[in-house]
Amino acid sequence: MLRLDSVSRHFGDQHVLDGISLTVPDGQLLSVVGPSGCGKSTLLRSVAGLLPGEEGTITLDGAPVTGVPEHLAVVFQEYGRSLLPWLTVRDNVALPLRRQGLGRAARRAEAEAILERVGLHGVARRRPRELSGGMQQRVAIARALVCRPSLMLMDEPFGSLDAGTREDLEDLLLEVHRADGTTIVFVTHDIDESVYVGDRVVVLSPGPGSRVVRDLRVDLPGERDQIGTRSLPDFVALRTEVGRAVRGGG
Amino acid sequence: MTRRQDFLLGVLGAAAAFGACEAVSRAGIVRRAYLPPASEVLARAARLAGDRAFLDGIGVTLRAWALGLGLACAIAVPLGLLLGAVPVVEAAVRALIEFLRPLPSVALIPLVSLLLGSGTRTEVTLIAYASLWPVLFNTVYGLAETDPLAKDTLRAFGFGRVAVLLRVELPATAPFIAAGVRISASVALILAVATEILSGFGQGLGIFIAEAQTEPDGTRDVLAGVVWAGVLGLVINGVLVGAERRLFAWAREPGPAQRKPARSRA
């Protein structure tokens, strides 16, 4: 269980987060949505232990997060900067396994298996920059999954992809989440996307000093599909509500 | 401009320079003893390729060059990593470095000769000193240019400071280091030949040039030696550029697949 208790963050004299409190039960896929510049990424980096701060506490399974927690995985929007261009796709994916003391052959076998799982075939020996954006983000997702994380943090992971690729990856994420039951915090500025992938949507107010303005359960069927789910009345009602909250209508 | 045109223009430029030197000398505008015709210089340089003693000298010069450059890299890369990774150290030695860097290395030749004698040790020391700087500064600069997101990614996967340095920062900096080594390779060659000329002992390309100076009609030999120095520089640079292209193909600009405009449906 991930717990945030009155977490605030400042950069210099700029107030970014103002007393965020949240509890994320194990296995939940939480969407965090809010306008650009509202501190969503700051929130994510704080949870990842990359931005230490004094105000408020973050605990993971009861232990305070002071550094980077174990069994954590991240996926950033900028796959091109986050993947290492000098390593092959396979070695990028296998990289987190180095910390587990696995031999090279075992690491590569794991990496290849996970690449198949995210729908990438025959690209193990290519380099990330030879692939399309959507494929690169699949590589980044494979890298996040390879060490079977208990918590996965995703910072607008599909924000720079075209619409079709994005839908494919949203479905891949749902599939992975259903199969593994990983706790996922999914940051996005896309209202439809937040509802479509989330079990729950938290809306942050615009900065400076973002706070939680809305916390909604998404009661949609677990099996979702891009056309059917998006046309359900419940979906439309939720997206309207989230949209109003994002635009400050409360 | 196509590569072919580029190449042809290069050939044309070289031919024009050659023709000008040849003409100036043959027309008697400059005395032959001062500037022999370019064809004679080139012919002499070509004949030197069959001269055992001369080739041994080239070997001695190249050995000092390689030792000095290797020593410089062995010092500059770890030092650069230290300076780039630990700001406190960088702040502490910044003034010292800014004082040492602009000193012309050639001016240190007498001092170092006095301390270390006029053998290989002096030559290697001076080469190492002069070629330290480009590698050092490129290492520090490359480290500063490393993408913070790549570092954050590895940190988030639980890698510690040293692991991030070795797995992200060092490989990301490698193309910068290689460019520094290429610049240093030329500097090292200059220092190798200059040290030999000024200390004037033993064997080497610089010694050949220095000894030719003292002979009557030695200008041709001096110039032939200079041609060899130029060719060595050209070959070394070519080899290093080729190696960089092969090793760091990944560092070139990403393809069009990389950037797609962000689309928002919000």
TrEMBL record, chain A:
Extract one GO molecular function annotation from the record: ATP hydrolysis activity
PROSITE patterns the UniProt entry points to: ABC_TRANSPORTER_1, ABC_TRANSPORTER_2
User: Which SMART domains is this protein grouped with?
Assistant: AAA
Sorted alphabetically, which keywords does the UniProt record give? ATP-binding, Nucleotide-binding, Transport
Cited SUPFAM superfamilies: P-loop containing nucleoside triphosphate hydrolases
- The ABC transporter domain sits at 2-231
Task: Kindly provide the name given to this protein in its UniProt entry.
Answer: ABC transporter
From TrEMBL, chain B:
Q: Which family does it belong to?
A: Belongs to the binding-protein-dependent transport system permease family.
GO annotation terms (biological process) = transmembrane transport
Query: One Pfam annotation, family name?
Result: BPD_transp_1
Instruction: List the subcellular locations.
Output: Cell membrane
**Keywords, in A-Z order:** Cell membrane, Membrane, Transmembrane, Transmembrane helix, Transport
Q: Keyword check for Membrane, yes or no.
A: yes
What the entry lists under CDD domains is as follows: TM_PBP2 (cd06261)
Q: Which residues cross the membrane?
A: 64-87, 187-210, 222-243
Question: Under what name is this protein listed?
Answer: ABC transporter permease
Q: InterPro entries of this UniProt entry?
A: MetI-like, MetI-like_sf
Q: Which GO terms describe its cellular component?
A: plasma membrane
Bilayer disposition of the protein: Multi-pass membrane protein
Q: Which domain of life is it from?
A: Bacteria
Q: Which residues form the ABC transmembrane type-1 domain?
A: 58-240
Q: Does the keyword Transport apply?
A: yes
